[in-house]
Amino acid sequence: MLKVNNLAVSYGAIKAIHGVSLEVHDGEVVSLIGANGAGKTTILRTISGLKKADDGEILFNGTDLRKMEPSKIITLKLAHVPEGRHIFPQMTVEENLEMGAFTDKKDLEENMEEVFERFSRLKERRRQLAGTLSGGEQQMLAVGRALMAKPSMILMDEPSMGLSPLLVKEIFSIIKEVNRKGITVLLVEQNAKMALSISSRAYVMETGKITISGDAGELLRDDRVRKAYLGQ
Ligand SMILES: Nc1ncnc2c1ncn2[C@@H]1O[C@H](COP(=O)(O)OP(=O)(O)O)[C@@H](O)[C@H]1O
Ligand SMILES: [Mg+2]
């Protein structure tokens, strides 16, 4: 479904990503783990067109995304839940959800009802300003907004960041459920243990390169992964 070949990305003279290749198949949850600054966010931003690549290929269902604008990429049903959520704090929950929709009015209402069915906490707060939601609710809103585009695949950047352990569990169970409904997920996480536990496969990044990849279960048992990312 998604195939990244030999991707290179830089910020000015600094090369952030060197020759990264990865694949996500239809229906999978795949995680990308690695320390702060490894380049995970840069990869997701490049896939969704927010950052331009220097070299390489990004194929989504066979279409090369590299020269495409983000507004076009979202219409291909590839959604992005950015790091730090980036909801609109001065808009209501409903208005934020509308910003995620790329469909006509009738579909919009239907999609919103679907999101509210999944996230009852958002429904109760539909007219509340998003900036007044708790961290966990804001994260749910960010996921809900991505779902408004009816994506076939979602890129999620550190959805558990800054959440209490209980909410981390809740967010991970939401990701699992979203996947069960047929949406493919590429998940970036620092919480390697939780991420691996819901993934079929994973890639480990260090300073702009992929250093380890494999089945999630194998990586959970890999000594290098255990030492560096699982604290074991
Ligand atoms: N806007 C930017 N300008 C310059 N350098 C950046 C920018 N964003 C990220 N970088 C650098 O690129 C590297 C990868 O960052 P990032 O993709 O955010 O990593 P991660 O998400 O894994 O923490 C880091 O060295 C970071 O300092
Ligand atoms: Mg990041």
Automatic annotation (TrEMBL):
Which Pfam family is an annotated match for this chain, by its short name?
Answer: ABC_tran
Domain ABC transporter residue range list? 2-232
Q: Name one GO molecular function term.
A: ATP hydrolysis activity
Claim: Repressor is one of the keywords in the record: no
Which Gene Ontology BP annotations are present?
Answer: L-amino acid transport
* SMART domains named in the record: AAA (SM00382)
Keyword set, alphabetical order = Amino-acid transport, ATP-binding, Nucleotide-binding, Transport
Q: Which InterPro entries match?
A: AAA+_ATPase, ABC_branched_ATPase_LivF/BraG, ABC_transporter-like_ATP-bd, ABC_transporter-like_CS, BCAA_Transport_ATP-bd_LivF, P-loop_NTPase
List the PANTHER family hit by this protein, alphabetically.
BRANCHED-CHAIN AMINO ACID TRANSPORT SYSTEM,ATP-BINDING PROTEIN (PTHR43820:SF3), HIGH-AFFINITY BRANCHED-CHAIN AMINO ACID TRANSPORT ATP-BINDING PROTEIN LIVF (PTHR43820)
* Name of the protein: Amino acid/amide ABC transporter ATP-binding protein 2 (HAAT family)
Task: Identify the species of origin.
Answer: Lacrimispora xylanisolvens
Highest lineage ranks of the organism?
A: Bacteria, Bacillati, Bacillota, Clostridia, Lachnospirales
